[in-house]
Amino acid sequence: MKTNHLIIIPIVVFALIFSSCTNSSKSQSELSATSNPEMNIFIDSLLQKMTLEEKIGQTVLFTAGADITGPTLDENYVSYLKEGMLGAIFNIHSAKGARDFQKIAIEETRLGIPLLFGYDVIHGHKTIFPISLGEAASWDLKMIERSARVAAEEASASGIHWTFAPMVDIARDPRWGRVSEGAGEDVYLGSQIAKARVRGFQGDDLSKNNTILACAKHYAAYGAAEAGRDYNTVDMSERALRSTYLPPFKAALDEGVATFMTSFNELNGVPASGNKFLLSDILRDEWKFDGFVVTDYTSINEMIPHGFSKNEKQAGEQAINAGVDMDMQGGIFLRNLKNLVEENKVSEKRITTAARKILEMKYRLGLFDDPYKYFDEQREKDTHCKQEYLDDAKDMARKSMVLLKNEHEVLPLSKNKKIALIGPLAKDESHIIGSWSAQGDRSGKAISVFEGMEAFLGTSKNIKYTKGCEIEGNDTSNFSEAIRIAKQSDVVVMVLGESEGMSGEARSRTNLDVPGVQKELIAAIKKTGKPIVLVLMNGRPLTLEYENKVADAILEAWFPGTMGGAAIADVLFGAYNPSGKLPSTFPRNVGQIPIYYNYKNTGRPWDPEKKGDNYKSRYLDVPNSPLFPFGYGLSYTSFNYSDLKINKNEFNFNENIEVSVTITNTGKYNGEEVVQLYIQDVFGSVTRPVKELKRFKKMMLKTGESKKVLFTLTLNDLAFYTQDMSFKAEAGEFKLFVGTNSDDVLETRFELK
Ligand code: GLC
After folding, report:
1. What is the spatial order of strands in the sheet that 692-701 belongs to?
2. Which of 79, 336, 586, 640 is the right S-S partner for 664, CB 3.0 to 4.6 Å?
3. Does the beta carbon of 628 lie inside 6 Å of ligand 1?
4. Options 169, 290, 296, 681, the catalytic residue
């Protein structure tokens, strides 16, 4: 048994120098070692004691296998741990389980360096919130931060120090299954959400035992995979990269995110895990990132099939020298770094730096003071699924839902209606919590739509249910029962959609219709002549042209989480007036993809009002417009926009632009509205999008109430990567839009001189 002692070093306890979590412009320097002299002394002293192998050990991460989140497993992680060759472990998610591993690290290794425990806590740990795309649809930054905070409270109670979230990949191709994990298509919305999630996970003090390291992933441009096929090639201009795909990562970094994760894709011929431009030139040199970089699951190994590395050893050399600090599951750093140092292909200094970044995060978490501080089983029992967390999850689920259609005010439903509840997801308690649902309970804890409606009404006497069909497959044998109960009802509520396994990682689809025979089922019910309320559960934009024709109302519920059915009932019966707005464009069909609101005008823009104008950028078979645009979402009430004003018509380069607009609730219900502000730079040294979201405000308006909304734009909001790639605003004409979605807006203009 190796003797070991916790490092005998004078440990000066000091207040962590983290600015308050409310600061919106935390710089990495606040996190750097220079602002923590005591940490510096401690880490320097520890590193001096460490052998090269022990430093390499810090760069090694393996899964404990409790969850399978990748293609390979290595059962030897315990022996690596005992040899001091394991710095972190993931997929352990109980305080007891983590404590057992930590005990080995502390008592059975030479230096007793504590392990870091990671896990994919994406949209909740035990209390599951709506999938991330659903949360994004709330446009409610405080609720999104709250969701991450609750996730951190529950995860940290189960021994987790580090979540592999937020996923901040911009995505404009809903064929890609991981659209479900992000914040949609827009840079500004995605950047604000990235910040909110980092704040929620990391809180205001990483040394507290209810805060966890966040991880901005997948760096970078993973969402631009060709043809929406996961892991596929990404090739784009530096301008596109910097304008669209990098800003949410920079936003997370400015908010103090502790770690980054590399992506599986190549970017312009160089896999992200070996990409010096991304990992050193931008992340370290330009952005001054001071945390550590972990790869995604075996992505170093995958540089061989990428055709970038001839063998594992070269892949390891390329990755560590490009800027990777920790190898997730690949075993390449474990097996090769010592030889690479001996062959002078990798400097020991580089490895010391990687180990330092990892040790610094362990220090900031307080693990050297108390390596067991996250392993309190009583706290775990007391924390998981607390009522306040369930209430938060229900509130977020309600705010995430998007009302896409509501003809003849079929919604909200009155409580005395005879309801036929039909669909493969109507009584579901498993898919409803979506993919990447951590320790969420799929065996009955989640509230189904049926349960939610029954609880809301206090009885199920007016609800007749049948499944109608499965999510997938072609069995229509239950259609007759569905038709029978529909005929006996006043209204039919159909709960259709995808399985949770149809979105998420390695879940790309070429057909975005609701799967199986669900469309046939809705057609059969349509023939009964009864009004149809369609509730959708899905992890991506779907192609809904048919459903939009035959349903009287459509409620996009995403995968709404543990409290999903209760939230859906609240919306269907009007206890909550839906306020969600689409964070991703819904195409008419797959042929339109990629389709997004901030497109370029082209030299031959098509104007649907001008008939016969053939030589224009258009399709023969469908309009260019989507079925539902970015930012779209209805309410049970109606809002009127008026008096859009700017304080001046002309601005010089050091003046802010003050915008005001009046919103009035002209309908019968109190409701929240997301007021959206877009700009268009009409011409520039490079072409500019027809619209760009620059501000939004979500606000409650009582019936008949008017509010004047004020926005301030700065010069930075007008800046872009010009023809010489400098980031600045250019003089010229601008259009400014404010409205209820990216299409329905008031317009005005101003000039920058
Ligand atoms: C997976 C995912 C990544 C996740 C990691 C660990 O392959 O790409 O998002 O955090 O492996 O589970």
Report:
1. 650-651, 745-752, 732-739, 671-681, 692-701
2. 640
3. no
4. 296
Helix (H, G, I), strand (E, B) or coil at 61: strand
What number of H helices and E strands is found in the chain?
Answer: 20, 26
**What percentage of the chain reaches a pLDDT higher than 70?**
95
For the Cβ of 69 lying below 6 angstroms from any atom of ligand 1, the answer is yes
Per-residue pLDDT band at 15 (split at 50, 70, 90): very low
Q: Is the CB of 505 under 6 A from ligand 1?
A: yes
User: Would you say the CB of residue 456 lies under 6 angstroms from ligand 1?
Assistant: no
The verdict on whether 281 is a catalytic residue reads no
Per-residue pLDDT tens over the stretch 147-183: 999 999 999 999 999 999 999 999 999 999 999 999 9
Residue 651 β-bridge partners = 752
- Cβ neighbours of residue 199 closer than 8 Å, sequence gap 6 or more: 21, 22, 145, 148, 255
> Could you tell which of 132, 162, 164 is best to mutate to test the pocket of ligand 1, judged by most ligand atoms within 8 Å of the CB?
164
Confidence class for position 34, pLDDT limits 50, 70, 90: low
Burial of 247 (0-12, 13-18, 19+ CB in 10 A): middle
Closest by alpha carbon to 630, among 168, 186, 169, 188?
186
Contact 155, 95 (CB under 8 A): no
Query: What is the full DSSP assignment across 679-723?
Result: EEE---SS---S-EEEEEEEEEE-TT-EEEEEEEE-GGGG-EE-T
pLDDT of residue 8: 40
Which protein residue's CA is at the shortest distance from atom 8 of ligand 1? 296
DSSP-assigned beta bridge partners for residue 19: none
Rounded CA-CA distance 251/188 in Å is 10
pLDDT at position 18 is: 37
Ligand 1 lined by 302 (C-beta under 6 Å): no
